[in-house]
Amino acid sequence: DWIMGDYIEEAVARIREQVGDEEVILGLSGGVDSSVAAALIHRAIGDQLTCVFVDHGLLRLNEGQMVMDMFAGRLHAKVVHVQAAEQFLGHLQGVTDPEAKRKIIGREFVEVFQAEAAKLKGDGNKGAKWLAQGTIYPDVVESGGTKSKKATIKSHHNVGGLPETLGLKLLEPLRELFKDEVRELGVALGLPADMVYRHPFPGPGLGVRVLGEVKPEYVSLLQRADHIFIEELRKTIDPTTGKSWYDLTSQAFTVFLPVKSVGVMGDGRTYEYVVSLRAVETSDFMTADSAELPYSLLKKVSSRIINEVRGINRVAYDVSSKPPATIEWE
Ligand code: XMP
């Protein structure tokens, strides 16, 4: 067992020694690993760190604001907020194939990040010399040859995985830590538990949760529907365990289906879109079971989504297991 306070002191000292008075760039995604890395490095070197947050417009509702409030607002870290939604959505126009969408999002991401990093690097000897990444121990193992099977089924894009480092030196202070340790460290560094214990979110974000072509209208409907689902999961406590259904599930989210179904509202007929809720329990994400959410919770979420999100008139619940289905729908 390790004592977190001592660990932080050691890690901070190590980072200071490595970096000296040089500048560091870090790609902040809002995910656990890059957030904890940012908080730790900021603790060590303060304003020598600049975080680059590429907002591809495929994030959860209010996520961009949340990341900025947390890092720029509360931690007083330097954060460049790159608002690239239009650019990403532009490149996704007309594209329906899931793998093609992943490739476009991954490629754009690298391009936008590298352009921003190149500005910070400059060409004199004043610019940034380091690229920090939230690589954790399981990532190190995975890239050491024993590639996980899921990576061959779907091409995974993660903010950590830049193909080249722009000639910057790599700073990876979480390399020896397992996920649980990263979470504990995050809490000890003052990040909110809510943020540090969040469900995983795929790099391509809502790009793979809007089935088929990603249109801005669809993204907005999905963001609002998903926000309601997650809010109700967090609010609803299971009496036997005393835990929220958010904490009882490994991953939960909403999927937008670009098909229309008929409904009634007041005296009129509606003809609007459908979403599916997905919630799974899993220990390794290689196999998963759909979560047995209480019916009352599902009905509450359904009625809230249909009443509050104009444009959606039907909510389904996905009960498939992985395999043969996958956790995501694309
Ligand atoms: P599947 O859908 O393959 O998902 O059962 C397994 C886990 O991987 C996540 N996932 C991704 N993560 N980029 C990511 O960073 C991706 O392209 C991607 N696709 C799936 C998924 O959310 C689940 O946790």
From TrEMBL:
Pathway(s) this gene product operates in, as recorded in its UniProt entry: Purine metabolism; GMP biosynthesis; GMP from XMP (L-Gln route): step 1/1
Every GMPS ATP-PPase domain range: 2-198
GO cellular component: cytosol
Catalytic activity annotation: XMP + L-glutamine + ATP + H2O = GMP + L-glutamate + AMP + diphosphate + 2 H(+)
E.C. code: 6.3.5.2
Keywords per UniProt: ATP-binding, Glutamine amidotransferase, GMP biosynthesis, Ligase, Nucleotide-binding, Purine biosynthesis
Keyword Nucleotide-binding: yes
Signal peptide: none
Molecular functions (GO terms): ATP binding; GMP synthase activity
Record: residues binding ATP: 29-35
Taxonomy, superkingdom: Bacteria
Function, as annotated: Catalyzes the synthesis of GMP from XMP.
Subunit architecture: Homodimer.
Protein name per Swiss-Prot or TrEMBL: GMP synthase [glutamine-hydrolyzing]
Species in which this protein is naturally found: Sphaerotilus hippei
GN (gene name): guaA
